[in-house]
Write a structure and sequence with these properties.
Layout lengths: L9 E10 L7 E6 L21 E3 L1 H10 L9 E5 L7 H13 L4 E5 L8 H4 L5 E5 L5 H8 L3 H9 L9 E8 L7 H10 L7 E8 L5 H7 L13 H39 L1 E2 L6 H8 L9 H10 L1 E5 L4 E3 L7 E7 L2 E6 L5 E7 L4 E2 L1 H5 L7 E4 L3 E7 H8 L3 H26 L3 H16 L1 E2 L4 E4 L4 H8 L3 H13 L3 E4 L3 E4 L2 H8 L1
Parallel strand pairs: 2-4, 4-5, 5-6, 6-7, 7-8
Antiparallel strand pairs: 1-2, 1-3, 9-10, 10-17, 11-16, 12-15, 12-17, 13-14, 13-16, 18-19, 19-21, 20-21
Helix pairs in contact: 1-2, 6-8, 14-17, 15-16
Length: 506
Amino acid sequence: MKENSIKVWGKLHSMESMGLVDGPGNRTLFFLQGCPLRCAYCHNPDAITTSGGKEITPEDILKTARRYRTYHGEEGGITFSGGEPLLQGEFLYEALEKLKNDGFNTCVDTSGIGNPKYYSKIMPLIDVMLLDVKAFDEESFKDICRGDLSVYLKFIRDLEKYGFQGMIWARHVMVPGLTDNKESMEKFVEILEPVKNRVERIEILPYHTAGVKKYEELKIPYRLEGVEPMDKDKAKELEIYTNKYFTESLHKERVEEAKKKQKKAKNILQNERDLKEKDKALIEEIKSLPLLKGISSEKMEEVLKEIHIIKKNTNDYVFQTDDEASYMYLILKGQVKIFYNTIDGKEQIFYIYRDQDFVGGLNLLEHESYLYNGQALTDCEIISIPREVFEEYILTNPESLKIILKMSFERIRWAEDLIQRLSTSNASMKTAGLLLRLKNSIGVETEEGIKLELSLNREELGNYSGLTRETVTRKLGEFKELGYIDLIGNKIILIKDLEALEDFVF
């Protein structure tokens, strides 16, 4: 009798207390029932249907795992196989969560075709993924597995978007006459390209006929009848070739990436210039900037020697997440958006900087990397201030320090406000809050109202407000009908009734 307190039940096909080939070290294996594929060489045909198996709870999994923990050693842990574990998404998530909270190393053997609803919960909990690569083109995948290759490829592309941060053991069952050649192995490597940086090893599993008797007992036609087992020596040779080809491909790509970085650095240098005597007007403009205004004339001369003027075109990155924080940036002209990419791959904009704003200074204080991306919304002229100058001349200047503290406090308040606004489910409040934030950052008072000249498209407005593009567009239309705003083309919003917008928020 099931207890009311138990919310989730899974279907277990079988288990092994000591497995040595399904993940690192000694492992306890749980084979879950049910699989959406019908692979011709499947050696567990009795695990395919969802009607079989034994009911089990996540608590049962944890209890069993604890029983065999002493055999795992330093590298071992728990592996879920099948069937297809991802098909039982909710159960797998709860089981993995309990195991991780109890300190177990986790591994999932998957074909990448399960229940996407739970992927974002499951993937962060997996230490090692045994990624089964069944076939390398649409026709073969359909023929061998009765499945859709495009679904599998999407799974691979989206792994990191779902939050997967573990390592991958890529595996392929090699069948004589089908994939036992170098050309197939090169295609194997190509499929792994989106996750290449997470692939720890590539394994070739020679096809065998150990499961044929199960098909006879279950009276299921065996589609590879007459196919001889794969020669193990040949499989090993091709495994060595595949790993070598993979490594060489990575090396070649890294060389190309290094060349790109060199080219990028060269381009940056071309768009960066020192201040010369002829830049008198610009020098005076820089001296008058609020952040630098209080620095003495003597020290300012030293500052001017060390800073540079950088030109950025629209959509150019000023810096990216995890770049070393070596500079503070002062915007002379233009707009820069600050954003990060969420776990589901969406862009969350949380600030737009404009003329005379600074960005990156707080990162310098901690000698850390940038935690977000800075990207030019318009063509920009930006002053880059090296860390040494920031520490020696700006932090030691009381007036500059006051401005940094004031603006930092304002940004903290704004961040708190943003969190509050994004947490609400009311689209009207979010849209009104968006317009008020834009008013504070880029609004210009006119006789007709507050003019917002946008450098953001509708999708970016959605990213700024936590709404979809369609919802933002719809709500702006509603606000226009109510007379709160006016829309002039796609790039200008005129706020006509500020109080009405504030009533939504306050």
